[in-house]
Write a structure and sequence with these properties.
Blueprint lengths: L20 H4 L12 E5 L3 E2 L2 E2 L3 E5 L2 E4 L1
Antiparallel strand pairs: 1-4, 2-3, 4-5
Organism: Araneus ventricosus (Orbweaver spider)
Protein name: RNase H type-1 domain-containing protein
Length: 65
């Protein structure tokens, strides 16, 4: 039945700065490194374009979101 499906959910109706980045990005290390700076991204995509959410921790302290 072609009508028995869920439609696309509209996204990005809010400013990116209102996102709580700590809830959106996994902080699990893929590679175990001894580097003092770690950068995490959420790998998001919207409308076939790459998102830009990131989070930087320096010496285990949040320095940029």
């Amino acid at each position: 039945d072609p009508k028995a499906f869920e439609g696309k959910i509209s996204t990005a109706k809010f400013h990116e700065a209102s996102f709580n980045v700590e809830n959106q990005i996994s902080f699990d290390h893929i590679f175990n490194t001894d580097e003092p700076i770690n950068i995490y991204t959420d790998g998001s995509k919207m409308d076939d374009r790459t998102g830009c959410e990131f989070y930087i921790r320096e010496n285990n302290i949040s320095t940029s979101e």
